[in-house]
Design brief:
Elements: E1 4-9, H1 14-20, E2 29-36, E3 49-52, H2 65-75, E4 79-83, H3 84-95, E5 100-104, H4 107-110, H5 116-128, E6 131-134, H6 137-146, E7 154-156, H7 163-166, E8 177-182, H8 192-205, E9 210-214, H9 220-228, E10 235-239, H10 243-250, E11 253-258, H11 267-275, E12 278-282, H12 285-288, E13 298-300, H13 305-317, H14 319-336, H15 339-357
Parallel strand pairs: 1-2, 1-4, 2-3, 4-5, 5-6, 6-7, 8-9, 8-11, 9-10, 11-12, 12-13
Helix pairs in contact: 2-3, 3-5, 8-9, 8-13, 11-14
């Protein structure tokens, strides 16, 4: 079989890189990544990639069809995998290329509820694709409400966690520190304020507990609140670190704290579960797909610092609840979110559409 010319049409994101890397040395594929010149430009370093500048930021999606069509025509792909429905998926649908594989990440579907125009765009893009990959069941359910045609070939999975690699960072429970890790960053959606407010209550009962906060974004408000609450000894604002450093830290911590107001399928939560950190997470549909309250984690009202604190204290003071989830959560990830298995799944999907096209 000739090499399949695969065009990955996606944002400059670590998620894009994770989708692409397994195909770089695969003799069955020739890969090109095409993206807007927006976001973390270093993400695409070392990848076969082309970018297009947008004079209008995200609004440039609507004016860039011809620019991308020129790149597509030069590469002559056998299939396109577009990531994110309302941007790259929209452009790919306007170009009219087939076969088109489409991945819905999260807010591209969830935010459609707020706008009739966005709903029409999402419905049109989903139904003009040949195959849709939803990152979570809740996204599929929302897409159906918007008007996704269930007869369209589709599946539900996210690329997942490299469990073979990540387990080397996973320390036994008895060797772990009294640490709570917040890995999500400092954007408003990640509910930073309530996490810090919760720690004020946590340290009153568990004085040795510490919260380490990681991720990108402006952390100045978080630092100011930590100062105001005199929590400098208990809350450490760290920011972005490399992936291995973060995994190493989570792998020696007792709890992962992830309480956003909304979310896609939370990869950092899946990684933390594989690493053995006990999940304390907001009670929203993406989390409920992975965490069953009081069985393999705790679900909390993200608007309540008191409830977040209560859940953290419950876990810290009842080691059995953490022990009972330790191996269970790793097994959940191995069964449902294993990176190598899911990449193999998408490879077979690509090959089936290549044969269909041929």
């Amino acid at each position: 079989m000739n090499k399949i010319k695969l065009l990955i049409f996606a944002p400059q994101s670590i998620h894009t890189r994770k989708w692409v890397e397994p195909f770089l040395n695969d003799n069955d594929f020739e890969v090109l990544v095409v993206s807007f010149d927006l976001g973390n430009r270093e993400i695409l370093n070392g990848l076969p990639a082309k970018t297009v500048k947008s004079k209008f930021g995200k609004f440039g999606y609507f004016f860039s069809v011809n620019k991308f069509k020129k790149i597509f025509d030069e590469f002559k792909p056998d299939l396109i995998h577009a990531h994110f429905v309302t941007s790259y998926g929209y452009i790919a649908s306007k170009i009219g290329f087939h076969p088109l594989v489409l991945s819905a990440w999260g807010s591209d579907i969830t935010l459609a509820e707020k706008s009739s125009l966005r709903r029409r765009i999402v419905r049109s893009v989903l139904n003009s694709s040949d195959y849709v990959n939803f990152a979570g069941e809740y996204l599929k359910d929302m897409a159906i409400k918007i008007g996704f045609d269930l007869k369209k070939p589709h599946d539900v999975f996210q690329y997942g966690v490299d469990t073979q690699n990540i387990v080397k960072y996973r320390k036994p429970i008895d060797d772990r520190e009294n640490l709570i890790i917040s890995p999500r960053g400092f954007a408003e959606v990640y509910n930073v304020k309530n996490q810090i407010l919760a720690m004020k209550n946590v340290v009153e009962k568990n004085s040795t507990a510490k919260l380490f906060m990681y991720g990108g974004g402006d952390s100045s408000k978080a630092k100011k609140l930590v100062d105001e609450l005199h929590l400098n000894d208990s809350v450490k604002i760290i920011g972005k670190v490399d992936q291995n450093t973060l995994w190493s830290q989570i792998g020696k911590s007792l709890i992962v704290l992830s309480v956003p107001f909304r979310d896609g399928t939370p990869l950092s939560l899946l990684e933390s579960m594989a690493l053995g950190a006990f999940p304390v997470v907001s009670k929203i549909p993406p989390n409920e797909e992975w965490v069953e309250d009081r069985k393999n984690g705790l679900l909390v009202d993200e608007d309540s610092p008191e409830e977040i604190a209560k859940a953290i204290n419950l876990a810290l003071e009842n080691s059995e609840i953490i022990r009972s989830s330790f191996d269970c959560n790793l097994e959940i990830i191995r069964l449902r979110a294993d990176y190598l298995k899911n990449i193999q799944k998408i490879k077979e999907i690509y090959k089936s559409y290549f044969k269909y096209r041929g």
